[in-house]
Amino acid sequence: MSAVPARRAGASGVPSALAAAVLFFVLLAGLVVLDELPVTLLAAYGLVSAVAFLMYGADKSAARQGRWRTSESTLHTIALVGGWPGALVARRVFRHKTTKQPFRTIFWSTVLANCVALAWLVSEAPLSLP
Q1: pTM
Q2: Collapsed DSSP state (helix, strand, coil) of residue 96
Q3: What sign does the CA torsion over 107, 110, 112, 118 have?
Q4: Angle 78-22-69 (CA atoms, 0-180°, nearest 5)?
Q5: I need a labelling partner for 89 at 20 to 30 A (CA). Which of 17, 72, 114, 122 fits?
């Protein structure tokens, strides 16, 4: 009889994180098609998400090598300004910052704050961006 190895914390969840990010971008694309959101905002979310993904990867690499790290406040700021989809995927892909509290609570607070701000922007703010 062989023992089944335990899964490392944070190792699972890549498919669901990726699905959540894709779903969010599909929603944004739908809002662009409906002319409720400028395409530049969709592009900005994509760019900031890519930057967030790279920042999490670099921070994980620095952690492994004992080098200078990206501050948690910087990681939270990039998530807050729209990089949360990339950060969400990166947390799972790199198994980084998936179990540490209060990081997770603050991260999900930035996701909520960003989504609330986006909802307000779509419903209330006049959008004149191209």
Answers
A1: 0.84
A2: coil
A3: negative
A4: 30
A5: 122
Residue 2 lies in a domain: no
Q: Residue 8 — left, alpha, or beta (φ > 0 → left; ψ -120 to 50 → alpha)?
A: beta
CA 56 to chain centre: 10
Per-residue pLDDT tens over the stretch 44-77: 999 999 999 999 999 999 999 999 999 999 999 9
Domain assignment present for residue 55? The answer is: yes
Range of the domain at 41: 14-123
Comparing CA positions, the residue from 53, 102, 57 lying closest to residue 82 is 53
| DSSP structural state of residue 69 | -
Largest CA distance in the chain: 66
Find all residues with CB under 8 Å of 95, minimum gap 6, and list them. Answer: 8, 9, 10, 11, 60
CA distance 19 to 28: 14
